[in-house]
Amino acid sequence: MAEAQTMTRSEAIAALAKSGERYELQELEINGVPLRVFKNAPSSLRALYADTKSDKPFIVYDDERLTFADAYRDAARVAHLLVHEYGVAKGDRVAISMRNYPEWILAFMAATSIGAIAVAMNSMWPPEEMEYGLDDSGAKVLFADQERLDRLSQCSKSLSVRAVAVRPARANDGAPELTQILEDVGDVEMPPADVAPEDDATIVYTSGSTGQPKGVVSTHRNVLTALLSWELDARAGMLMAGVTPVAPREQPATLLGVPLFHATGSHAVYLSSYRARRKIVSMYKWDPEQAAELVEREQITSFIAPAAMTGDLIREAKRTKRDLSTLLTVGGGGAPREPEQVKEIDASFQKAMPNTGWGMTETNAIGTGIGGQDYLTRPGSSGRVSAVLALKVVDDSGGELPAGERGELLVRGTSMFRGYWNRPEINAELFDDGWFRTGDVAYLDNEGYLFIVDRIKDLIIRGGENIGCGQVEAALLLHPDVREAAVYAVPDDRLGEEVGATVYGSETLEADELRESLREHLARFAVPRYVRLSSAPLPRTASGKIFKRQLRDEAIAALALETETASV
User: Fold this and answer.
1) Contact 223, 266 (CB under 8 A)
2) Which of 140, 92, 142, 139 is nearest to 115 (CA)?
3) Among 288, 438, 423, 463, which residue's Cα sits nearest to residue 362?
4) What is 503-520 written as a DSSP string?
5) Which residues does 524 contact at the CB level (< 8 Å), separation at least 6?
6) Per-residue pLDDT tens for 502-522?
7) Alpha carbons 252 and 229: distance in angstroms, whole number
8) Which of 264, 294, 289 shows the shortest CA–CA distance to 62?
9) pTM
10) CA 489/CA 528 separation, integer angstroms
11) Strands 431-432 and 435-444
12) Distance between CA 392 and CA 401 in Å, rounded?
């Protein structure tokens, strides 16, 4: 890269987004809210796919390889099947539930190319949640692998969805095999469709930590804005660093280790690869040793995943003799990363610089971003806001707070989802003049850097004292023998709630010694009364976050059993 004059971030964004530039931003009123939009963005995901066809490698899965042109050709065949065999029309929902097979991407391309809405279902759902998602979305067709077909067979027979089997292990009643039914289609053109920027493109269900999962509905413009926002931020970072981008000598490649139904996988890894002409190397499931092997073999240049997975790769980098020097970026997503891991990324890989950001499924995974030396300097920050979004922090009455003061984080902008599917009452509660209530406790510093403090619903109220679970978890992770920690509320007759924690660490870790060490970092009332030591890594949701609800339920059940035994 050639040296160039350095700029501040605001100067870099202004230079790249001004009139006549590739990332030109203009104001447009959408649903009564003035928003900044990319003037030169593709009009739809359909246009994105068509514009990026080439003979460059696109999808690698085991020994299978598809070019961008191959994927578009096969997606056109799937789209033809949806239109002519299953009667899918614009606005119909097409559900996808499977491992990270190439067919996930083909089904997604096909559905969004014909104006249907792709429902990216959580493939970890048990049958009852799967049934809920299919019924709630009203999906007309479901593409599913054998694991999901087995769960579908346990769902209500009243579901009207028609299943298509992907890589089945056996025959499935009423679910023809995709490869067999595509044989009769042959090579066809992508079916015609008029897909507009404000048309719905995706429904992604939230994890449903409380109540039923909610379907996050995003338009083509919402999704595409997120992709171009990442590009704009990357270019701005280069201007700020004083370098001019040049075409890479080798094709960039990324490792897909997170599920495609999660916004990190679908957006930051998969969809952002089109315009970058980036190769995607997909894993059946996460395995650190295999990941290191793939990085070396496929010359992987970027890896984006939750902190637990990037931590796994750090440990693998320390012990392995494999060459991981092609990695240029190790990014975060889906869960926060502890400051110490930020430093370890910088120390563990020869060229890779860490980066992360804050985002939500509701923002289509963008929000704020930070990377490189900036991140090393401020490892506790999630960065500064995207040019197409705005942030503010408010108090309980909705008044905007000054820099440095903590409150609820609100966000508004062009990548924001349209609303929750079939949930008008929740939309009315969480949206106010385009501003969305995130449920995150945060503050912005004087330079606009965002710091996420906690979740509003992740507070423990102990005898009137508010205790942030994130604060206690951060203190636990300072102990050299602690690897993972989850903090939660435990019901208490006298105080209302007590602090509980489940900790995974070394074999020599002792609960009493751990509590004593916490007194150096926490107020006495915030030190966990209940500490459970785990001999194995803590369970995680499919999106990579620690499954805190399960750990809390286990802790409460164990305490109840101890109380019952003691009273006998």
Assistant:
1) no
2) 92
3) 438
4) EEE-TT--HHHHHHHHTT
5) none
6) 999 999 999 999 999 998 888
7) 19
8) 294
9) 0.83
10) 10
11) antiparallel
12) 8
Q: Which residues pair with 357 in a beta bridge?
A: 369
Matching residue, tokens 């891991």? 341
Closest by Cα among 232, 250, 274, 256 to 12: 232
For the range 219-223, what are the long-range contacts, defined as Cβ-Cβ under 8 Å and sequence gap of 24 or more?
219/418, 220/43, 220/44, 220/45, 220/112, 220/195, 220/196, 221/30, 221/37, 221/41, 221/197, 221/414, 222/364, 222/414, 222/415, 222/416, 222/417, 222/418, 223/45, 223/267, 223/271, 223/364, 223/415
Task: Please provide the DSSP assignment of 278-290 as one string.
Answer: -EEEE-SS--HHH
Highest averaged pLDDT of the listed ranges 246-255, 349-358, 442-451: 442-451
Residue 338: burial class (beta carbons within 10 Å; 0-12, 13-18, 19+): middle
Structure tokens of 339? Answer: 């400051």
- Cα-trace Rg, the chain: 24
* C-alpha distance from residue 461 to each of 81, 382, 471, 520 (Å): 55, 26, 14, 21
Domains of the chain with CATH codes: 15-41+219-454 (3.40.50.12780), 68-195 (3.40.50.980), 463-567 (3.30.300.30)
Q: How far apart are CA 477 and CA 470, in angstroms?
A: 11
State the sign of the Cα–Cα–Cα–Cα dihedral 98, 100, 102, 104: positive
Distance CA 457, CA 185 (A): 51
Give the CA angle between residues 557, 558, 564 to the nearest 5°: 90
* Cα(111)–Cα(119) distance, integer angstroms: 9
Q: For 362, list phi and psi in degrees, rounded to 5.
A: -70, -20
Return d(Cα 429, Cα 445) in angstroms, integer. Answer: 28
- How do residues 440-485 score in pLDDT, each as one tens digit? 899 999 999 999 887 777 778 786 677 878 889 988 998 999 999 9
CB 511 within 8 A of CB 539: no
Cβ neighbours, 10 Å, residue 537: 12
Q: Collapse the DSSP code of 346 into the 3-class scheme (helix H, G, I; strand E, B; otherwise coil) and give the result.
A: helix
The DSSP 8-state label assigned to residue 270 in this structure reads: I
CB crowding 261-284: b at 16 or more within 10 Å, else e: bbbbbbbbbbbbbbbbbbbbbbbe
Please work out, in degrees rounded to the nearest 5, the angle formed at the alpha carbon of residue 554 by the alpha carbons of 552 and 557.
110
